Amino acid sequence: MRGFLGFSFTLILIGLFSFIFMETTEEFYQLKTLHEVLDEAVEVSTIQLPEKSIITDSNGNVVSEIYAVENRINLSYEEIPQTVIDALLSAEDQSFFDHKGFDIKGISRALLINLESQSIEQGGSTVTQQLIRNLYLTHDQSYERKLSEILYAYQLERELTKEEILELYINIIYFQNGVYGFEAASLFYFNKFAKELNVAETAFLAAIPNNPTLYNPLKNEELTHKRKEWILDKMLETGSIDEDDYSIALEEHIELNLGSRVDIYPDYVTYIHTEFEQLIGLREGYTKRIEHARDAEEKKTHQRDLKERVEELLTSGIVIETALQPTAQKSTVDAVNAIKGSNIQGLQGASVVIDHAKNEIIAITGGRNYQKFDFHRGYQAYRQPGSAIKPLLVFAPYIEETGTNSRTVIDASPFSRNGYNPRNAGGGVYGNVPMETAFKHSYNTAAVRLLDTMSPPTGFSYLNEFEFDRLVEQDLNLPAALGGLTHGVTVLEMTLAYTTFSNEGKYTFPRGIRQVTDKEGNLLYRWPDKEKRMWSEETNQIMQQMLSLAITEGTGRNAAFSTSGYLGGKTGTTNKVHDLWFVGASNRYTTGLWLGKDQPASITSASSQHLHTKTWREIMMKLDH
């Protein structure tokens, strides 16, 4: 009895709603009130379907598809194949272009069937109602929800065109296995675009959304085929296909060809996620707000807002175009993973390769055998740089400040100041030597004395112009000449700074992201083109010469290889041999390499085997060829 009363009450309500809808002249005031209520409940302007974004390499090939749960590729109405529209409407809503959001005949027919079975077996829902259910309501089977669904559907039809509704519907429906929308379903199940499907394949996919669990092709393919045949019958009935197309489609062999999520080059992709956040922070003002926050709480609020904005963009179907060069990335990762001749437990490493001619980061590694979104040693590991900092903090600034050159004689004898007594490697003691000799053999006493002569604040006035994120006031002291910093530097920061030596003394702010566009190719974001002169061309030429001598005659000899072009670089070793560095350049590329352990410990055997210089050489040789 209660079921009968429920059906009767719903029929009465639907009848009243239909009467109000049609009697617009007599019931204008009431209808206006209804519209006002619906206007508040259904905010059509806020409809935005999450869509996967992609990261591409320097050749435009996809290297990473970005989505959390909903794998979706939105199609505009003009991009939707007519066969897809025909299949879905033939199966789900043949009167779609005639009704105003709900179909009284369909609902009445469903109610009668449900009345006979004393259950809710059929809903009589139109495409618009199904869309409403996905956008605003639940999938609960109740008469209250059904009535809300009808009212919302009516409102949606007032606000959107039929084509807009159909576009949303085809992009929102669920195809099981985390796939939403027809285009993503086509790529997932057949590994081709919807426009490439034949009639049988289209009908096969159109079968799934009616009950994604029941018609899941990966588990119940036979049931999917049965519904596909039913849809083909409906398409024939509606005239969407003729007898010949129908017969061909029934006989067509359907073979699933599952597409897999593209997600390669984890070291580079992980870094790009961070650089993208930095780009949005700069371009949309979040970075300034964070820097000028009044307190820690306000800073956290701005940081949270930035991350939410980044997530919003990553679910809007953007394309992040990068400078990634797959061959360079693979060879660099392989070289770091191998680290030939090493049997040191826990030895780690990271490398960055920059095309300094284009100001682009073309390769970066996060560590040996790196997994996506793990701790990234290429840009997150802050380590002491050892003597690798000397060219940036000491020698180039000193030459620039004093006008000296590589042949200028400097004092490399023992040095002592306020209890600080630096030693040279191996305990060597030297006297007056040409600057190039002190540089190529990395005499510590000479470097400290040069910094003392011009003063640490002067040296740091140059270093602070680079992108070293964790330099602090306490670093402005003499031990910094040998890499003694409070927090240290990253491989990325060091490599970025060294590109100045290959760009006539100018720092050009290399980046991995070329630009960010929407999927139609419209530009959304790009790093600003800028450069900063760090020192004169004359100073830079002297530095290039000394960096070259370090490889041909000095501490970097094991980095040398046969090439027709330029090679120059600098080693770095920290106290107790916790870190090994080599940063240098060829004509085209600047590469930085670090070796060490995550928990600092001695890696003396790696130093005696010259693993840092040899691994750098292997990376650069592959790039040179």
Automatic annotation (TrEMBL):
Matching InterPro entries: Beta-lactam/transpept-like (IPR012338), Glyco_trans_51 (IPR001264), Glycosyltr_51/Transpeptidase (IPR050396), Lysozyme-like_dom_sf (IPR023346), PBP_transglycosylase (IPR036950), PCN-bd_Tpept (IPR001460)
Location (main, coarse): membrane
Keywords, alphabetical: Carboxypeptidase, Cell membrane, Cell shape, Cell wall biogenesis/degradation, Glycosyltransferase, Hydrolase, Membrane, Multifunctional enzyme, Peptidoglycan synthesis, Protease, Transferase
PANTHER family: BINDING PROTEIN TRANSPEPTIDASE, PUTATIVE-RELATED, PENICILLIN-BINDING PROTEIN 1B
Keyword Glycosyltransferase applies: yes
The protein, known as: Penicillin-binding protein
UniProt catalytic activity: Preferential cleavage: (Ac)2-L-Lys-D-Ala-|-D-Ala. Also transpeptidation of peptidyl-alanyl moieties that are N-acyl substituents of D-alanine; [GlcNAc-(1->4)-Mur2Ac(oyl-L-Ala-gamma-D-Glu-L-Lys-D-Ala-D-Ala)](n)-di-trans,octa-cis-undecaprenyl diphosphate + beta-D-GlcNAc-(1->4)-Mur2Ac(oyl-L-Ala-gamma-D-Glu-L-Lys-D-Ala-D-Ala)-di-trans,octa-cis-undecaprenyl diphosphate = [GlcNAc-(1->4)-Mur2Ac(oyl-L-Ala-gamma-D-Glu-L-Lys-D-Ala-D-Ala)](n+1)-di-trans,octa-cis-undecaprenyl diphosphate + di-trans,octa-cis-undecaprenyl diphosphate + H(+)
Domain spans labelled Penicillin-binding protein transpeptidase: 349-585
Glycosyl transferase family domain residues: 60-235
Family matches, as Gene3D superfamilies: Biosynthetic peptidoglycan transglycosylase-like (1.10.3810.10), DD-peptidase/beta-lactamase superfamily (3.40.710.10)
Subcellular location(s) per record: Cell membrane
Signal peptide: none
